[in-house]
Amino acid sequence: MSLRIFDAAVIGGGAAGMMAAITAARRGRSVALIEHNPFCGKKLRITGKGRCNVCNNCDIKTFLKNVPTNGKFLYSALNRFSPDDTMAYFESLGVPLKTERGSRVFPVSDNAHDIARALEAEMRRAGVFLLHDSAVEILLENGAVRGVRCAENTLQCESALIATGGASYPLTGSTGDGYRMAKALGHTVTPLLPSLVPLESDDADCAEMQGFSLKNVTLTLRDGQGKALYCELGEMMFTHFGITGPLVLSASAFLRGSAGPWTAEIDLKPGLDEKKLDARLLRDFELYKNRDFANALGDLAGRTMIPVLVRRSGIPGETKVNAVTREQRQRLLQLFKAFPVSVRGPRPIAEAIVTSGGVNVKEVDPRTMGSKIVDGLYFAGEVLDLDAFTGGFNLQIAWSTGHLAGEHI
User: Residue 204: phi, psi to the nearest 5?
Assistant: First the structure.
């Protein structure tokens, strides 16, 4: 086992780790980045369905509204390295960017590899030493960092940064080692839960409608007491196990700390209030008054959903439209405005985009990302108890915390 000497060791070659290593090396520090995968940025290369939603083109106030967990902890990091800074950074590395719907920022190439390759190239230019090895433990002397022991090497250093990611997407290398090392050094790790993850349902109608997408609907997630936890307009989809899609992934962030069972209510016609929707129903019913009820909803609902709507309305499908009563029409109207789907809970953490929970931020200095417990120990990225909605916010957390840590290690 060889001994190598550096100023700082960064454990984890993901978004936060690479950003921190580059930032520290640009300050003239000798930096080793320890990554057990054969290449860096494995998870980064598959984000945004392989396109890489680099960040969100918004101001800091808007950004923090999209961080439901410990957002205030990020004030210093975001002010030191904002979304504007992130965009300028990658443009300076030769990666042209574009802003799409929802202020989501992507490489013009729509290729996540371009972001990862740009960071790898900048690490080489900055002189970061890339060590493909597995970190086993952080070595202390008199309560301060003095090195990192790996499977095949030992590094002597005065600073160590844990940027190992969360527990989601374990095939990318997020094995939870960072949590284990943090605990061994006296840090608290809050319960790890899946976030930005599809939701499971016991409702058989979901499986019947699997693959059916809804656009421009409003999803409201309610807890076991009926309290609204989340409400937003967007897109979603039914699956064999429940529901998924952008709205559902964001809603899943609100399961933490709430009591189930939960209910997802879908407003299928958010652009129409009940009075206008009733008028629309009356027009359609007049137009198709001689049809069977089951054949009269094609202008208002997708073909896949119509049998479910008919069944839930309690109106026999063979009923002639001109025989549908006002009471029956009101039941149908309520279905369109609040279509309920029972929610049992989230899919497994291995399927989550990010991990909710992690190293307790109360034990980390938000001005430096340094440990309040161990001198010379730092944290950045998903290993911390921070998570946000979809739209580039979680990657921005990695860039901002990684950059701030890199300024201090």
Answer: -65, -20
